[in-house]
Prior knowledge:
Shape: globular
Structural class: alpha+beta
Number of helices: 12
Helix content: 25-40%
Amino acid sequence: MEEYKENIQDKGDNVKLSSEPEEDDKSCNKVCSNIGEPVPQVSSTRGEFSDPVYKEIALANGHINRMNKDELRSKLAECKLDTRGVKDVMKKRLKNYYKKQKLSLMQSVTEGGPTDAYYDFICVVDFEATCEQDNPLDFTHEIIEFPMVLFNTHTLDIEDSFQEYVRPEVNTQLSEFCIKLTGITQKMVDEADTFPDVLKRVVLWLQEKELGTKYKYAILTDGSWDMSKFMNTQCRLSRLRYPQFAKKWINIKKFYGNFYKVPRTQTKLSSMLEKLGLQYEGRPHSGLDDSRNIARIALRMLQDGCQLRINERMHEGQLRAVPSSAPVEGAPPPHNPRSRV
């Protein structure tokens, strides 16, 4: 449903980003330093970049920038790195690998795993919702598929998944367009439980994984729409308070665009996969399959050196950016939300 979400969001999104200072677009430049840029000239009194290792990194970046695709692939293979992706992606991968190696030697730090991740687990969510081909601006989207894909940031493996269909209560009959787009039939939703019951099982599933208690975790979505629109609207329709564990999340589109330096038009799911040299696996617009493919993108970004962190949140019903200067926090332990009075 990702490209469809882009279309309906452009038509009339009534959830607007807060006017708080939006440092979010700079987050990857701070968290996942862009080593392709000149090394900052800092006085020796501060000393942050005075170590000769930064000159070595800058020289290596210049050499990498002059490589053609065959040379990049050869060097990536030599370093036992993934050789897939467009030229700019391969450059970024090699630069981050070289930078990480040099800084690790300089700092004499033993890393805890393949990546320096803020979270132990990341849980990808990509809802499917009721829709029509030409949605009126006041069309009510109800969640009809609740999928989750959980991956381990240390082993870089997808460990488990959750999926349930949801019975809508306002627009109970699915449009032909919705059925064709999502592959979800009328029979599937008619036999499903309503959102409050499905959400209870989602919470139980997360609790069984000890997320937010034993392990630090975060929710990840492909854009703002899933949480700021679909979850927000569904909780209102179901007379539930917005669940605390879903109030903050990672918007992978923003990280992808900043990290690989591509415009928003190239952050659709199909485009992101293509640029990374990956092919979509499964049925497009299946919530579970979309979630799995989004997880594959996130895993590739972690391998390429990007440190994913929460960059969006809901506050008083409004979508807001989380500045990169904010303390890094995981999602809280999952609990069932209270009913609205």
